């Protein structure tokens, strides 16, 4: 919608046109000229803004789950939040992270490919120090991690995948599996250098130490579920959930509705005179043979065939056959 000009702005515009300060023809020419936008094919935008917003929502939930998880594990102040969500070439992402860092590579089954979680060394070693009984001070020792330290960190980050799985549960049921921990990004080639990836940067504070956790999601891995990341899909899913909820509610009410079930033992025709003179002990002859099944009606409609009998000294019937709809219509 065009901006609405005030009366003062309109008067100033008319004055400029009348004095020659502005040329109406030039304004029309500028408006008609085609607007050219620079497009860098090396930074191909493969994700729509809608999908980026959905990824941001998913990882805001992931950040909250991580905050709870790390707070419980480290028993100290932890704050994690989404700082940015960007799409860029994989090569550019690798260049942007430290030369020596903590790289958790995991496979998001049933999706094909690998995802990456990069934890800044300041954060990673503050966590390690806290787990080993320290105050959560970051000590740079990335070049000489012992096997025990590597195992401890591996187990800590392995359990973050449970939070990742829960955050994505509204879109797809993932079963992520930790594949490896690397420290040098130059030795890690998950996808081609020009492949577009989404990088979700999580601003992280552990006690008095701050840093970033970066999650790298290649387009080629998420390609098959991209339609599920649109607002239209989310709205459809919510509509389906509402419809399912309404259907379940109606079904529950229907199941509680009372139904009259009757079994017809047989029929007989007698005169009014005979009916008026019926007494105790009289016998009425029915047209139902003893070897023929009885008819069971549900809500007045013929539904089953049954045979008479007794159970616990009470008269009962045993359903033997379902009457088909075609037979009922006849």
Helical content class: 25-40%
Give the low-confidence spans. Answer: none
The major sheet is characterized as:
6 strands, antiparallel
According to DSSP, the number of beta strands is 10
Determine the N-to-C terminus distance: 66 Å
Provide the spatial order of strands within the biggest beta sheet: 1-5-6-3-2-4
What fraction of the residues are assigned to beta strands by DSSP?
Answer: 25-35%
Q: H/E element string?
A: HHHEHEEHHHEEEHHEHEEEH
Describe this structure in words.
By secondary structure, this protein is of the alpha+beta class. About 40% of the residues lie in helices and about 25% in strands. The protein is built from eleven helices and ten strands. Strands 1-5-6-3-2-4 form a six-stranded antiparallel sheet. Helix 3 packs antiparallel against helix 7. The longest helix is centred in the N-terminal third of the chain and has 26 residues. The two termini are about 65 Å apart. Keywords: Bacterial flagellum, Cell membrane, Cell projection, Chemotaxis, Cilium, Flagellar rotation, Flagellum, Membrane. It is a peripheral membrane protein.
Key traits:
330 residues, alpha+beta, 6-stranded antiparallel sheet, 4-stranded antiparallel sheet, 11 helices, 38% helix, FliN-like_C, CheC-like_sf
Summarize the structure.
With 330 residues, the chain is of the alpha+beta class. The protein has helices at residues 7-19, 24-32, 49-74, 90-96, 121-131, 147-158, 160-167, 219-222, 231-256, 272-276, 325-329; strands at 78-89, 102-109, 115-119, 175-182, 196-206, 209-218, 261-264, 294-298, 301-311, 314-322. The strands form 2 sheets. Strands 1-5-6-3-2-4 form a 6-stranded antiparallel β-sheet. It has a 4-stranded antiparallel β-sheet with strand order 7-8-9-10, with no helix packed on it.
């Amino acid at each position: 919608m065009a901006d609405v000009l005030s009366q003062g702005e309109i008067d100033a515009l008319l004055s400029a046109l009348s004095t020659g300060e502005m040329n109406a023809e030039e304004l029309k020419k500028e408006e008609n000229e085609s607007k050219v936008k620079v497009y860098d094919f090396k930074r191909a935008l493969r994700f729509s803004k809608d999908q980026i917003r959905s990824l941001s929502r998913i990882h805001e939930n992931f950040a909250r789950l991580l905050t709870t998880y790390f707070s419980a594990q480290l028993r100290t102040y932890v704050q994690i939040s989404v700082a940015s969500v960007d799409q860029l070439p994989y090569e550019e992402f690798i260049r942007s992270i430290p030369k020596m860092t903590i790289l958790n590579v995991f496979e998001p089954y049933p999706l094909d490919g690998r995802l990456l979680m990069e934890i800044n060394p300041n954060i990673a070693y503050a966590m390690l120090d806290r787990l080993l009984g320290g105050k959560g001070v970051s000590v740079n020792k990335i070049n000489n991690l012992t096997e025990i330290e590597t195992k401890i960190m591996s187990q800590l980050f392995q359990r973050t995948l449970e939070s990742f799985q829960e955050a994505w549960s509204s879109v797809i049921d993932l079963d992520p599996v930790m594949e490896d921990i690397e420290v040098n990004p130059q030795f890690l080639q998950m996808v081609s250098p020009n492949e577009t990836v989404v990088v979700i940067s999580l601003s992280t504070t552990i006690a008095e130490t701050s840093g970033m956790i970066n999650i790298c999601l290649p387009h080629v891995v998420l390609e098959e579920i991209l339609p599920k990341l649109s607002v239209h899909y989310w709205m459809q899913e919510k509509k389906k959930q509402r419809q399912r909820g309404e259907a379940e509610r109606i079904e529950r009410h229907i199941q509680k509705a009372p139904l009259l079930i009757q079994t017809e033992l047989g029929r007989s025709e007698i005169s009014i005179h005979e009916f008026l003179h019926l007494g105790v002990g009289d016998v009425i002859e029915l047209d139902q043979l003893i070897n023929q099944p009885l008819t069971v009606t549900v809500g007045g409609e013929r539904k089953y065939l049954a045979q008479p009998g007794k159970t616990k000294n009470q008269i009962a019937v045993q359903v033997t056959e379902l009457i088909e709809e075609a037979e009922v219509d006849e």
